[in-house]
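Exercise (ungraded).
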Amino acid sequence: MKKLEMIYEGKAKKVFKTDVDNQYIVDYKDDATAFNGLKKGTITDKGIMNNTISSKIFQLLEQKGIKTHFLQKLSDREMLVRKVEIVPLEVLVRNYAAGSLTKRYGIPEGTKMDTTILEFCYKNDEYGDPFINNYHIKAMNLATEAEVEIIEKEALKINEILIELMKNINIDLVDFKLEFGRTPEGEIILADEISPDTCRLWDAVTHEKLDKDRFRRDMGKVEEGYIEVVNRILG
Amino acid sequence: MKKLEMIYEGKAKKVFKTDVDNQYIVDYKDDATAFNGLKKGTITDKGIMNNTISSKIFQLLEQKGIKTHFLQKLSDREMLVRKVEIVPLEVLVRNYAAGSLTKRYGIPEGTKMDTTILEFCYKNDEYGDPFINNYHIKAMNLATEAEVEIIEKEALKINEILIELMKNINIDLVDFKLEFGRTPEGEIILADEISPDTCRLWDAVTHEKLDKDRFRRDMGKVEEGYIEVVNRILG
């Protein structure tokens, strides 16, 4: 397989065409951003760690019947994926209060929610990925009602699987962000990545943060958090 | 009937007990606030005008089969209503883009939406009545799923009735805010008010604003906007 021209560069990943139909290569970078790009930095070897963690998690999800874009880990930083058109929605799933749930509604950080909370944000850098609801999605033609229904169901299933996975390695899954894509055949599958960049992961005993909040909040030991997750996941 | 002690004072209305079981008196004030109370002022005779407009609209809605808290207009500023416990949700219905739809998502003001947009905000002054979704409502125990379903259905029915009413008096119904209440028997009915304080109303031909945006944005001729709506509604 040949890696061809880059077709997209995001904050944490590059995507390349290949000479195989409908297959792309994702290249994980060490760049870290927060607060809609206002804060920028580098986390040493983050690309290697996130590729490792995401590959492992996508494989597990596939085993549990979730359809993902993952095909194969190619190298330290490279993942082979199915070509999709990304649905312009960030899907947030929250089991404990943190981040905007605390800022917007005053729910104290760490509060266990009785009900899993699912939120959609409109992927739009100019407007800071604003929070939207199902009516906005329909009015702005971001996805069909049938697609939104699939995405909600899949996100909640993925949550159950990830809670269990994390529990087994002594981590509380506080919240996480998913993105979905449409295959050329119009099927909705999980895309993007699942890593400490996109999840809040707290040690179940010490409640120590093992995710990008260490970078966002200048808490130090940023790399150590990611390394800890890699080690526990590879277990 | 005797007007007894005040049990609640909001930004634009006072509510009094009466000596009749389960009946309250709402007293409409001239006070105007905007931006979560940051901007304060008075609109001369607003209380009289909003009581007139709301009474007329509630009566029409009742005729069309919508259950409301309205019983009777008692005087210039007073309305007799059924006692309810207000559901802590602001229900926003949007037919054209304006306000937060423009600010948050960049949809140009005045754009006609293909789909009516319904939004819930959590009535909470400290947090600025933040936008929430159905998962937050459930997780924060603000209303049951059955109540939310009734509220959504009623709000969309009310929208159809109000669009028609406004069309007949040459006004475009841009958007509006509703509040619902629970009767002592647990029934969900429309409460609060429907007036230029809670609706965006534009002249259908000139697109002149005839609502509280004239106050919010210091556009002048604030009272004139309200008077125009009263005159057209009383027809």
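Further reading is listed at the end of the chapter. For now, observe: The mean pLDDT of chain B is 97. The CA atoms of residues 28 and 47 of chain B lie 4 Å apart.
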